[in-house]
Amino acid sequence: MKIKKSFAKGMDKLKRYIQQHIEYEPEWETSFNLVIKLQKSITNLIEWCSSDQYVYEQSIEYLLCILHQTESNEPLFAYRYNSVKFNDIVYEFIDYKVIREEVSIHAPLSRMLAAVFSRMGKFSLTFRDLWEKIESNVSIPQPKALSLIEPSLRALILVAQTNAGFWKRNGFSLLSQVYFYSNIKCRHEMFDRDIQCLQMGASLMNPNEFLINLLNHYDIYEFLTNENFELSKGEKVADDQKLDYLTSMSQEFLELLIYIFSERFSPNMSQIEASKRLEREVIHQLCISPMAHSDLVKNIFPDNEKFTNELENSEEYQLSKKKTETERFFKPPRLPPLTELYWNLNHLLDCDVFVRIVFCLIRRQIHQSKLSTYGQILRILHLVGLALYEEQDDVDKNIQSLESNQTYLFKFLDKSVLNKKKTSLFSIKTFKTEDNLVKLLDDLINVANNEPFKQMVIWINDYSLKLLKLKHKIDQQKSQQAGEGTSRMEEEKALKEKRKNEIAEKRRAKILAQLNLQSKKFIESHKSFYEETKVGSVASELKKNVEDLMEVDQDLEKVVCIGPERKINTSTSTKISRCILCQEEEEINLKSSAMVLCCYVQMSKVLSKNRVEKIEDFEKFDSLFMKNTLAWGIASTSCGHIMHASCWQKYVDTVRQIESRRNARFLSFDFKHVFIINPCPLSTITKLMRDAVASNFRLLFESEYAQSILPSVATISEPTEQKFNSETMNIIENFTRAAFTFGYNTLPHDDDSRMPISIWTNCAYTIQVTEQSLRFESKPLFHSLTIKQTDLLSNLVKQAAVYGILKNTESVRKSCLRLLATCMPYKTAFFELKNLMDLDMFHMLVYLCLSMPNLYNDSPDLSSVLYGGINDLNILKLILIAHSVQILLAKISYRKFLPSPKETSPDQNQKHNKIFEFYKFLLNFCADKGLVKVTNDDQELLRSPEEIYTTLKNALMPFLRCSALFFSNLTNTSPLLSIMDNENEMDKNFDTIMTFLGIKEDLSEILDIKSSPVKILVESWLTTESKVQFRKGLKIDYPFELNKFIELPNDFVDLMSMSTSNNVCTSKQSSIIDRTAESANIICLVCGELLCSQINCCQKDLFKKRVGNCTAHAYSCGGKTGVFLRVSECQVLLLNLNYSDASDLEVKGCFLPAPYLDDYGETDQGLRRGNPLKLCKARYDKLYKDWLSHAIPEVISRQFQMQTSMVTANWFEF
Questions:
Q1: For residue 385, what pLDDT is reported?
Q2: Start and end of every E3 ubiquitin-protein ligase UBR-like C-terminal domain (predicted)?
Q3: Are residues 1023 and 1118 in the same domain?
């Protein structure tokens, strides 16, 4: 005790440095070493002090005397008292500001007193009773609770201000002290004891006085109690610093209040069971970091394991609670009831000061004040939730005892909602109109940007009304039991009032009848006047307005994005975006500085239906005709952040400069594949050949062109010549080069005819990937897209539309003619023809739509950019017919049809018959040409018209969904109705999407085989010249099924048996009986192939470099990404290949836990624990979603960022 006495005298005092940084770091280790050495002795001393009542009383007496001597002799603890008036009551507080005066983080005597005080309930004593016993033995006045808690309060405020960054000039010595203050080595005798000391003070003081003292020490009394608080009108920098201090300290104050009120899980403070204490300890341990079951046992029970069964039950309870939890917010936890010694602690949350703070913070958030922060509102709502729990406990006690003299002890709702009114005046409507907590919560729910706390506010509002109703019901029951005589008198009084009301109602009705009679007589006498003024005109006008509104609603449901009925957006509203790097706002137009999105461009095989197919030489590869196997593609992903191009370049240069100094570190990013795309502000062939092909295309749809002599290509609002600035043009060209380089694995050439095709392919392929991702998650087509997906697609489509107009116009015209020649029935010898049935129709649609404007403009500019005109609609119909033929040919080959609907209407039967005629024509034509082997008794092909119609519509949906995404982003038009891919509502979805695409005709009218253009087209597509290609080509069924990961067994033991059944190692270095090679098998989750994963084994040549088996397989199977499951290590291997040509190959990768969990929901990398493992479907689907959405490079990059070691693996060896 003498050591602690000498230790208490202001050791390691500090004062905040303001003007300059501290020059010499003071010595601080000795005091903390002393704390660490004395911890066990202090604990034994506290236990000894509470071993006997006499010893306990003498210990309290000695501690109070020492604290009084310290306060008298030490200047640091010479307290200055002051007072403040709150609600006409004067409260005392200690006038001290930690940020301006000297302070010490060491307060061992106050902490010792708090620990001994907590044992007072063991002897059934109170502090008043104890002082009466020892008062005669000491010569000191009765100590004030304010002085007892002052040293601990100062230490807590010092730590809070240091963490908020207000003591930076005091150097690392203070940071180290704050770190060890809350570190596990010292926190039990420092931080925990300080919280315990404040709890002691709160139990001894008036709650209003306690909170006022805390607020003045934090220097935020006016800030949290005055709703009209304003910053002083001075310099902006000073105001910003003061605002930063006030908001930070208010959050720290509320957090401290949560600690004081909630930290009660001790048998000396609350009535708590051992199992509940254990459950809370488990939760806290798991919040620190994920832990295995064995680690939990060691951390919680380092010496013995006698509570292991309770631990397992607690873990199982938390796991089941986590699985069944559906709410997106965390309610405050229910706290155990306090002991009698600390009972006054509850009233911290129903005192007048706390209610004032609640009202002040909520009103500021409602008014969107700059003084309000999310941290403040979340903490105060947590405290309000705790207050409601205490109110519930108080109400439950009243329910158990319905005596008339029973009163409520906890009055938070009485002060915050009822405003000292009686609960018998209960009315929810009144609460929601008057200025009280319920009204404020209703307003807070409707505040903008309330997502972080909206669910919490709704729960508090509902809970408050529930408690108010319950209290009202209890009060009614009490009033009924209070006296029956009073109730009888009230009934008689109510009966008299009822009789008076009835008499008054009769009199009122009589007067109204007389007035009606007089008005009728007046109208009859002036009948001619009323006929001239048309009394019913108002009603008819209202009816007409209602009908007009109904027509507008019907029109809104039928939004059209292309064709003659599309409404061109002529609004002049400007789009303003904020740069995420410099935070400056910029208006997006042709003259402004370029704003860009950051994109990652990569070659992809995610959608491939033929992974064996390879492109041997990209230099000679003709990319204009994308095969329907989708063996390769170019995909882009984006973070969605918009920034200035100049800011982005500065950021890249800075990061490269910093990372160039770290030679030993493996970079977690790849600037070679990261390019920027501009948020576009746009909502040598002979003329004879061009006109001939264009006229043939126009003859296909004579009825459409009868309405307009020339193709109606919509232009932008201003007909004057418009041009991009040089900066924007450079961005467009750079992004197109990126798509070319990483799509074709060759160096870019600006004169290459495939430059525009590369960005068209990037556009079409990215849309197809997005559509399949939405289909996998069963999400609507438009309104479920994230902001970054919407921005990426919108800007990618517009940039693809612009590039063909501004660059490589001659090659674009040639590509357009080649595409049209493939689709047209009139063949030409100028081009090599392709089999249209072997091509992907959505790529054909995108290519044709983006290249068509060049045919009609000798000198195209921005005004030539297509914008959903008739040409686009006709191209869509042409490709729709071709895709229908493609689908029915596949169905004839595979004999796969959907069942027909149960009931059909006569109109539907007529549509079905037309489609059936089209199907029969195809079947007979293919049989005659020998394209399909058909026998007379082939019953599988003899389907009903309903089955053919249903099958065709279902197979067309993916193509139509992709087309809707393309034209929606091209024309800045989105449908009001979300389009789902639900087979049960396929008819409704099909009609909605056809209407959105501007196709008024039914599918049966478009595919009417009696129409000569349709018949000519089909016959030209299915000629004997395409017979060989059709038979050799890979037959693809429609609609495309999603490329999914292989199905893994549910039990990990079965997976191990499957992987070790065959030895796939082909290296001569491993012998036949080498078990290591068998156990090193790895599974490709994309195709299911077993590979050897041993390092330096089974290597292959890739780009003239020896690489591992997995790297080589990732190139052939996934293009640039690979997802493998290492069974022997129970982990997933992710690989990403970065290359732009044959001489540049880099491989990055990472390891992830396998999607197999034990009974405790934990992974087991390396199979160290040996617990039984089961497949987790959610984790497996998450991994598949990352692969499908091309997020594997992002996952690898994030793993590198979290990596702390300098040693990295040579990933190309895997």
A1: 92
A2: 749-1189
A3: no
- Judgement on whether residues 1084 and 1031 belong to the same structural domain of the protein: no
Q: Is the domain of 1097 the same as that of 1158?
A: yes
- Of the listed ranges 171-185, 665-679, 928-942, 1111-1125, the least confidently predicted one is 665-679
Paired tokens of 149: 């808690």
Task: Tell which residue, 382, 393, 277, 379, has the closest CA to residue 346.
Answer: 393
Instruction: Please count the CA atoms within 13 angstroms of the CA of 589 that sit on its side-chain side.
Output: 9
Return the ∠ at Cα 814 (arms to 811 and 818), rounded to 5°. Answer: 135
Residues 44, 180: one domain?
yes
Determine the structural domain holding residue 151 and report its residue range: 1-14+27-230+238-272
Total Cβ atoms within 10 A of residue 481: 11
State the SS3 of 192-232. Answer: HHHHHHHHHHHHHCCHHHHHHHHHHHHCCHHHHHCCCCCCC
Q: Is the pLDDT of residue 532 over 50?
A: no
Query: Within this chain, do residues 109 and 150 fall inside the same structural domain, yes or no?
Result: yes
| Pairing mode, strands 89-94 and 1100-1101 | unpaired
Q: Check if the beta carbon of residue 120 is closer than 8 Å to that of residue 341.
A: yes
Joined together, the tokens standing for residue 103 give: 């302070």
Would you say residue 739 lies in a domain? yes
How many angstroms from the chain centroid is the CA of residue 239? Answer: 34
Give the tokens for residue 739. Answer: 């798509």
The pLDDT assigned to 905 comes to 55
Mean pLDDT of 466-473: 84
543 domain residue, yes or no: no
Residues 17, 15: Cα–Cα separation, whole Å: 6
Tell me whether the omega of the peptide bond preceding residue 711 falls within 30 degrees of 0, making it cis: no
Structure letter (DSSP) for residue 416: I
Query: Is the same domain home to 758 and 812?
Result: yes
Residue 1191 three-state SS: coil
Give the model confidence (pLDDT) of 1010-1069 as tens digits: 777 888 888 888 864 544 344 444 567 788 888 888 899 999 888 888 877 666 665 545
CA dist 630 to 409, 605, 622, 840, Å? 73, 8, 14, 7
Domain boundary among 272, 296, 324: 272
The reply to whether 881 and 847 lie within a common domain is yes
Rounded distance between C-alpha atoms, residue 827 and residue 881, angstroms: 19
| Choice between 934 and 1147, residue whose per-residue pLDDT is larger | 1147
Q: Rounded to 5 degrees, what are φ and ψ at 178?
A: -65, -40
Tell me: do 1007 and 1059 sit in the same domain.
no
Total count of domains within the chain: 4
Q: Rounded mean pLDDT of 1080-1091? A: 84
Q: Is residue 329 part of a domain?
A: no
Which of 429, 454, 476 is the last residue in one of the domains?
A: 476
